[in-house]
Amino acid sequence: MVKTLQSELVQGVIAVLIFALLLLTSCAGNGVRPESGPLAHASSDTKYSTKAEKLNIELAQKGPELKKTLSSADYKIGPEDLLEINVFQAKELDTLARVSASGYIKLPLIDKIQASGLTVAELESLINKKLEKYLTEPVAGVFIKEYRNQQFSVLGSVKSPGVYYASGQRYLLDALSLAGGLSPDAGDFCIIQRASGNEARDGENIEKIAVDLDALLLQGRFDLNLPLYSGDLVHVPKSGIVFVDGSVGKPGSYPVKGKISITQVISLAGGLVYEASRSDIRIYRDNGTPERDVITIDYNSVLERKSPDIDIKDKDIIIVATSSVKRFLKNFSGFFNFGAFGISKGFTGGL
User: Fold this and answer.
1) pLDDT tens digits for 88-111?
2) Which of 72, 95, 137, 343 is such that its CA lies 20 to 30 A from the CA of 301?
3) For the chain, first and last CA: distance in Å?
């Protein structure tokens, strides 16, 4: 009987060991597939959420600090602004002038003058130049008594996208704050789009400025808190995107999911238009510093398999230049300003 009990005990221990071994093996098997199941998605979402939350915290903390270094000197006068103008050598010329809907003001002696689109300093210089016919070394002072309501839009991965109205000079951080901060899926840069001339018709004369939000908020780059003007559009693309601009059918931002090449991205952007310079396509790639790497692509060479079809990375900015010869046949659609990324020369087209 004792032997029987010992045998049963040994069998019980062996069964427990086998069960434990199977349990450990099962746990190990689950652990080698971290990308499967809902936990993987939760981890990915947490990464984006944490990054956005970190940028939002910096937005709340550094916003006032960055704004202290900036002044209304950047403000561009617009319709409906009320200006106080003083001429120090001739007080009888002092006046209050409301900027008309067409952008003009009327002053004694010099009558009508274009004020809209000028800074205070530029308008002072223009008035002084006009008064030189009547005064020796005139000195005029311009003060903004009442600001018009400026309208700008904030779209994309922000918590409250929409159209906003504000008086006085506003900056990029103001716009992001008014829009409630960044959404969890927000990327690391934003695009400011504005008319580069008096008017932008059918997408022409549109300037696009890319601003690195990491550099602005995490590194405290004061110079990247750019002034906004009435009519500006601030777009915050989602994380995991590339931006395509220039001579393509559908300029804009496109998602990067897995491996994708330059030809695939250009296809997503509607392909090259007639006036595109096929030998001058440039990829501006983030390298962790304010200065982006520049990769120049010959599209025909890629299609003929003489050059590699380069893989595109998250946050790449692709610009397709316009042929100067074809430009005679069709106006250039726009240009991209890379000043915010610290690229030494702007890019406005190719040969």
Assistant:
1) 988 899 999 999 989 999 998 888
2) 343
3) 100
Task: With a cut of 50, say whether residue 342 has pLDDT above it.
Answer: no
Q: Which of 299, 26, 55 is nearest to 188 (CA)?
A: 55
61 and 154 in a common domain: yes
Q: Identify which has the larger pLDDT, 61 or 310.
A: 310
The pTM assigned to this predicted structure is: 0.62
110 Cβ partners below 8 Å, 6+ apart? 127, 130, 131
Total domain count, the chain: 3
187 and 332 in a single domain? The answer is no
CA separation for the pair 215, 223 (Å, rounded): 10
Residue 115 lies in a domain: yes
> What's the confidence (pLDDT) of residue 298?
94
Q: Kindly state whether residues 173 and 290 are assigned to the same domain.
A: no
Residue 315 in any domain: the answer is yes
Instruction: Check if the beta carbon of residue 50 is closer than 8 Å to that of residue 68.
Output: no
pLDDT of 186 above 90: no
Q: In 127-240, at which residue ranges do the beta strands (DSSP E only) sit?
A: 140-146, 149-156, 162-167, 170-171, 189-195, 206-212, 227-228, 233-236
Q: What is the pLDDT of residues 327-340, one digit of tens each?
A: 544 444 445 565 55
Task: Enter the DSSP assignment of 216.
Answer: I
pLDDT tens-digit map of 262-315 = 999 999 999 999 889 999 999 998 877 767 889 999 999 999 999 999 999 888
Average pLDDT, the chain: 76
Whether 2 maps to a domain, the answer reads no
Residue 344 to residue 334: CA distance in whole angstroms: 19
Q: What is the CATH number of the domain that holds 116?
A: 3.30.1950.10
Q: Both 195 and 302 in a single domain?
A: no
- Residue numbers of the domain that contains 109: 82-146
**Residue 156 lies inside a defined structural domain of this protein:** yes
- Outline where the chain has alpha helix (H): 2-31, 38-67, 120-131, 172-178, 213, 262-268, 299-303
CA–CA separation, 297 and 350 (whole Å): 12
Choosing from 146, 167, 186, the residue where a domain stops is: 146
Answer for the pair 123, 75: CB distance below 8 angstroms, yes or no: no
Among 100, 121, 146, the domain boundary falls at 146
